[in-house]
Amino acid sequence: MLDVYHAEPGANTLKVLLALKEKGVDFNSHYVALNKFEQHEEWFKKINPNGQVPVIVHDGKVINESTVINEYVDAVFEGPALRPADEYGKAMMRIWTKWVDEYFCPALSYLAWNWMIKSLVKDLTPEEFEAKLQKIPLKEQQDKWRITATEGYPEERLKEWRRQVETSVTKIDSALREHGKDWILGDQFTLADISVFAMAHPMPMGYQDIMNEEDTPHLMAWYNRMMERDGTNAALTMPNKMREEVKLDDRVDVLSKQGKE
Amino acid sequence: MLDVYHAEPGANTLKVLLALKEKGVDFNSHYVALNKFEQHEEWFKKINPNGQVPVIVHDGKVINESTVINEYVDAVFEGPALRPADEYGKAMMRIWTKWVDEYFCPALSYLAWNWMIKSLVKDLTPEEFEAKLQKIPLKEQQDKWRITATEGYPEERLKEWRRQVETSVTKIDSALREHGKDWILGDQFTLADISVFAMAHPMPMGYQDIMNEEDTPHLMAWYNRMMERDGTNAALTMPNKMREEVKLDDRVDVLSKQGKE
């Protein structure tokens, strides 16, 4: 029995959905509405005390952290292997997924939060917002909500995160160019592709000026290969209730402006 | 043939030395003098373009990132297993080592850098310092050197990192108390103990007010068990040339003051 608690396909949720769909694993989907702050409700914090999606419950055992979930999913379920068989290959894959978690994801995530949270909380009174904040278990997450819902991050930090996004895009494009193969590690499609794509997926929408056919042709070709996979299609067509319920205005315009000179 | 490029036993270098010594793996030790900025020299950047230790070269294959190195070392060399045999246990171990990399280590590391770098660069002229900076390959590392060598981080950020260190110490103590076993994951000594200890090792020196017998008895008992291991002793008695050559004054005093109200 596999239960998956997740939001709409995007970011860390998309990472886990991609692995499950690529392996062809059956699971019970439990949608957690981030725009309704369900991840901070008591019932959910009993499953993941950090108050974050995704989290899986497999035969009664709870696992959080999307990167770790994917390694576990690959190890225990049938389906195509998503990790290299040799230990050196595994290490190279781990360096990519670790880099996504520690560098690429935080940079993108801070920029996205800075743009998104105002929209999510705009209908709340200050008292209602404060009540929501009090339910967030991690102090760092509380701070992120408070800052992004009010004044936002300072321009200097937005600029540095944008620079990190640019550096990341160049790094991926160069790696693909240098080995000239289809996937991040070379011939085998792995969790490294899944980790990178889970973050890069919305980029052609908000970062056309740094990720495009001219400047990063190898990255774009890889992106198009990813979009053609059955696993990617199955993951991306999971319900996206936030897109239906919340009007997130002017995404492209805001993302393309913040953090720029 | 295993070559290990490392600094004195501490932080991420200690993490890898502990795993190697626990497994009883023979290796060629290559000491990289951080106080002489050797990690930014061209010969070293040919091995690790990031200009960071530790890095290993095994049968011609280069692996960086201490956490990944340890998983590789455990997988390919003889000696006691440092990871749980079952996949759920592996996932729980990975969540601990990931948390050390993303939370505990950065908080400790920023505080230590803020105190240490001034001592390291105090004999350089501004021109000499700038020349050293230009050799650092990662922009983030350049920024860290520049800030800590001059005005240091703002008090507000030091305070937040100190709070994260306190939160970390409480989290480890609670985990040990709750399961009542000897090691981080329970009965088996694993890479989770190694990752946590590599960071916690200097804490009884600089953070006695938050890590002590009274407030964190389970953490202190675990720390003492760690200190009694042959692997720990073998790693900690590796050459510590920085301690011999650089006088890092008033460590306890500085660390116990910074980031406090």
Task: Describe this entry's structure for a reader.
Chains A, B: InterPro entries: Glutathione-S-Trfase_C-like, Glutathione-S-Trfase_C_sf, Glutathione_S-Trfase, Glutathione_S-Trfase_N, GST_C, Thioredoxin-like_sf. Two copies of one chain form a homodimer. Chain A is 59% helix and 7% strand. In chain A, helix 1 links the parallel strand 1 and strand 2 (28-31). The longest helix of chain A is centred in the middle third of the chain and has 35 residues, at 87-121. Chain A has two domains: 2-76, Glutaredoxin, CATH 3.40.30; 87-257, Up-down Bundle (Glutathione S-transferase Yfyf (Class Pi), Chain A, domain 2). With 261 residues, chain A is α+β, with helices and mostly antiparallel strands. The termini of chain A are far apart. The first copy, chain A, is built from 13 helices and four strands. At the A-B interface, strand 4, helix 3 and helix 4 of A face strand 4, helix 3 and helix 4 of B.
Q: What is the correct CATH architecture of the largest domain in chain A? A: Up-down Bundle
Provide the CATH top-level class of the largest domain in chain A: Mainly Alpha
What strand line-up does the widest sheet of chain A have? Answer: 2-1-3-4
Structural class of chain A: alpha+beta
Give the termini distance of chain A in whole angstroms.
Answer: 51 Å
- The tally of strands of chain A reads 4
Order of helices and strands of chain A: EHEHEEHHHHHHHHHHH
Radius of gyration of chain A, whole Å: 18 Å
**Can you summarize the main beta sheet of chain A?**
4 strands, mixed
The coarse silhouette of chain A is globular
Percent in strands of chain A: 5-15%
Largest Cβ-defined interface = A-B, 24 and 24 residues
Regions of chain A with pLDDT < 50 over 5+ consecutive residues? none
The average pLDDT of chain A is: 93
InterPro entries (chains A, B): Glutathione-S-Trfase_C-like, Glutathione-S-Trfase_C_sf, Glutathione_S-Trfase, Glutathione_S-Trfase_N, GST_C, Thioredoxin-like_sf
Domain GST N-terminal (chains A, B): 1-81
Organism (chains A, B): Emcibacter nanhaiensis
Protein name (chains A, B): Glutathione S-transferase family protein
